[in-house]
Every structure is written in C-alpha cells, then in structure tokens.
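Ticket opened by: R.M.
Priority: normal
Category: complex prediction / small molecule

The reporter submitted a protein together with calcium ion and asked that the result be attached to this ticket for the collaborator who will pick it up next week. Submitted input follows.
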Amino acid sequence: MRILVVEDEHKIANAIKRGLEQHAYAVDAVYDGDEGLAMATTEPYDLIILDRMLPGKVDGLGILKELRTAKIHTPVLLLTAKDRVLDRTEGLNAGADDYLGKPFAFIELLARVRALLRRTNTKTAVTVLAYEDLELDPQAMTAARAGKDIRLTAKEFALLEYFMRHAEQVLTKETLMQHVWNYDADILPNTIEVYVGYLRNKVDKPFTGPNLIHNRRGFGYYLGKE
Ligand code: CA
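Result attached by the on-call engineer:
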C-alpha cells in the first residue's frame, strides 16, 4: 500500500515515513503544498497524510478541496496543530476522512492509517487476510501457508499483501510498481518479475497445494486459482 505524506516539518515527515516503511508501506514524503498537490493528483496513492498548515500556494485544506473537486477519493488523514472544534469540522467538511491533532504518538497514527485503509476496501475489513490456505497478518507482519510460517522480506510482504487485497484481479506491472514501491525507489524493468519470482519460491514452490501466483502473459500477474 502506497502512502503520500505532505508535511513541511521535515523531522515529523521523515519520522512518519520511516515508521510506516517499517510496517511495509511504500511512502513518499513532500514538504510543501504545491508539491503535495502535484503528487496527490498524479500518483495513485492508497492514502494521503496531509498537514493542514503548509507553505506554498495551497495549504492542506486547499489540496483536499482540489482532490475532491477532481473526484479523487483517496482517503485523507488530516494533521492539525489546531485542535478546536471549528477546525475539525472544517477539515471533515472539506472531505477529510479522519484527523489527528499534533503532537501525536506514532502508534496512534498507525492505528488510524490501518483503520482508514480497512474502511476503503471491504476485503480489508478483517484483520487477517486469507486466500485458500494462505494467510497474511498485516499487523503482526506474518504470513503462513497450510499453517506453516513463510519468512518474507518487507518488500515481499508488501507485494503479497497487495496481491491478497486484490485477489483474483489481474494486476499490471505498472499497478504493482505504483502501489508497492515509492517514487524514488530504484526500479528496473525486471524488478517486478524478480520479486514475483521470490514470492513464488516462498509461497508456491515449497507447498503441495495448487500454485496461487500466476502470470497472465501480456497483462500482468494475479493471485488466484489457475
Ligand atoms: Ca505545517
């Protein structure tokens, strides 16, 4: 799952980025309103964390309004230093899905991020994702097949999570790249193939059950039954 962080306080922005990356999210951080608006409207994010007060031609509320006017319904968590009722109402009226007053504990931010991602996709309403005999727990960051633990790197985990949240849908390489890797990641043309190969080696190869990760030639990859 890919997240955009728009926050002009570099320390906070980078702490959020690092913290979320440790939980296998792909994160881009930008530090002013103009760049935030440009990224939010051109890249396909699963969630946007938006500071309310930002330098530039648009602030957080401005970005939010532009997004909703453009019919981009990516969930937005608004960060606000002001915690007055008026400000919250203003943010929610502008189309924010949730807000968090500063200062906040990272664990609370993480809980809200998870809740928002759950809310926007019915398949994620359960805490443990399952497909056939394959299970993945995004909170504990564990995966298992037929009850046997599968050890995955953070990137393999993120890729498998994305496949499981979109089970039985053919996903193009571009889609996988955009949702599992961040903007400045070093991506080579065969990076996706390489990682899908790693996953197959861990998720399909060692098990007697049917293969779950497939290639639809010329289209992309999918998790499903043959
Ligand atoms: Ca700010």
